[in-house]
């Protein structure tokens, strides 16, 4: 392998899980050119990684607008132009780690003579020259990507999520911390928001946890999230004495740097929580309807998952909105685990 394209365009958490793959490629093929195809916005998580030589941004939003406007000629023209751009880089190997039809098409558009799919489905398997079935220890973080790396004979090392913070991002975030009167290691990131309600810990539980973290651990709760969660985050912060809400006020790279500098992270199954493990920040992950892993690979990161009979239900809850799998996780248990990870 001399010119390699990784295709893992989204989502945030999955990109974090896949992040050690580029390092494994570089450890095995140090002179190879490694490119990563990713959606705009998410690419900021990968920009500072020294094992990635090039980021290629998939103009998904542009394509979607053209398709929805029924401007099919313009749509296919944009697809052909993107394919020409990919082919000009002369990749000899393209690796689809997303497994879907859309990622399979992007991999195929690269023109790479060797196209490897990880558990390819939705018809994308027909666009690959090789398909590696998903495998590995499903309880371990990043397991399917580790398994793929092993099947390809890569030097995997510890193979845990890894993210890097660019110097300009670090400078910007340090200024933000100073402005808010926060010190590195002196605050706890709360990551309460994600895409589906059955993955959320309840707001009253966060409000109960906040004063315990501040009073018992000496850490200021800092709530992170996107623009859509800003109102909820500010409401929570107002109910927790001394808490700070930065939801909707940072980009993804800045949020990552805030997590890297945190003394603790507590979060649900969301990309921000997985970043805590990538940075080796003491992390407590709260899982219920989903359980992407139980083994974090790090002594200072633990998962709380109750293992109810109905869990994980993923996208098909059977509890009529009770979400007992998360409701029964009590703040005192979270505090006990927080103390455990802080002691490591």
From TrEMBL:
Superkingdom per UniProt: Bacteria
Keyword Glycosyltransferase: yes
Provenance organism: Denitromonas halophila
Protein name, entry field: Glycosyltransferase family 9 protein
Keyword set, alphabetical order: Glycosyltransferase, Transferase
CC annotations in GO: cytosol
GO biological process: lipopolysaccharide core region biosynthetic process
UniProt cross-references to Pfam families, sorted A to Z: Glyco_transf_9
Xref: SUPFAM superfamilies: UDP-Glycosyltransferase/glycogen phosphorylase
Keyword flag Glycosyltransferase: yes
GO molecular function terms listed in the Swiss-Prot or TrEMBL record: ADP-heptose-lipopolysaccharide heptosyltransferase activity
